Amino acid sequence: MIRFIVFHLRAVLTTIIAGVLFESIVRMPVPGYMRWFVLMTFVVFMSAMVLLVRRYVRIRLALWDMALLALAYMSTFLLMILTEWRTVIVLLEVLGALTVGMLVNILLSNTDTTPVYIKKAYRRMRGMAWVFVAAAMFITAYAVSFFFEQIPLAVLFLFVGATTSLCSYAIWRMYFQVPLQRFTIWLLIIAVMSMEVFWVIHLLPFGYMVLGFFAAWLWYLLLLLIRFHISAEGIRWKEQRRFLLSNAVVFIALLFVIRWI
């Protein structure tokens, strides 16, 4: 255990720093200064991240990783302030702190000499972190539509379309080393489809957490199908039919189960 901590010291430090900052936000004694305090914690967090990794990684070459760190931190904060249960808040703090710690560990460990199977694992972890960010953005958009009815849905549509396009491209670029221009059409497609999903799910009689979860689920399925489609092998429908059918069954079952919770 001690050897693991020493070897991954920077990741452990990142986890501790993030956890302390998250807890300090929750325990902020003066609500009127919350926005400034949150901004300060974000600046402290990103400054600490730059100091921890700049000796080992060129920041300019790791902008996507740094952006993911920032968005993961922001996503955790957004979910924390949208949750009322203390137990869930603590779980989010732990999850968020472990996530940013994992991302720093990946950033520092992923080198040219890293074995391919390790790189694949890192890629999946990064992908799940981007999915976490997208889910947090969906939940935030639904929460805003609940609490601020004066904000037009068109604004939220654009927000959802932009954030899902960003997360989609961030994931796709890990699998396909091609210029952004090659993804333009697909990014527009997934943005429009995400906005449609946002609208349809919005009609369900659930809270914003559940709505965001369902919307992120459908977006992720779209993301996978488009990724498979633009790959050299294409979509293997024999395998994907079972995958989509199982997801459809679970999705419909959850609609009825959650309705009665």
TrEMBL record:
Keywords assigned: Membrane, Transmembrane, Transmembrane helix
Keyword ATP-binding assigned: no
Stretches that traverse the bilayer: 7-27, 33-54, 61-82, 88-108, 129-148, 154-172, 184-202, 208-230, 242-260
Keyword Transmembrane: yes
Name recorded for this polypeptide: Uncharacterized protein
Species of provenance: Candidatus Magasanikbacteria bacterium CG_4_9_14_0_2_um_filter_42_11
